[in-house]
Design goal:
mainly alpha; two-stranded parallel ribbon; 7 helices
Amino acid sequence: EGEAAIRYYEYNRRRNREVVTHLLGNEFKGHLVSDFYGAYNVYSGPHQRCRVHLLRDLRQLQEEYEAEGEVAAWTLAVRYQYQTAGEAETPADPTERQHLYDALRRRTELLGLQYAQVKKHPCQALAKRLLRHLDELYQFVLYPDVPADNNLAVRAIRACVV
């Protein structure tokens, strides 16, 4: 972002682990900000998963099961975690940021555990996603320079795609 931003574009018909590994290599040490596409799981460094993508999936789940109150209550509870994280003024003190991160992580873990093992429950897939990526949901709280979403990348590439 800004004058120091660097953008590198490489065309590849595939979007798999090999492409991610090729592009990031062993040299990249920054935070990767991405959606939840499985190919990005190969990156073992610090990772922030896109808040917007998760919120969109939660909204879609809520709309699909709008007649089921427990689905609505669960999706609202998860969305509230992100709202809390987004509205909270990021503390300047790293210890305070860590406390906020830990609280958000704990509450989100409890929400994930609520349905992750409930077979065929409408919330199961997203509950599993929360648990699988628990450490990657609130990196923006710990590191204020890390965005909560990958919108900048999406907007940057949109012109090339169109």
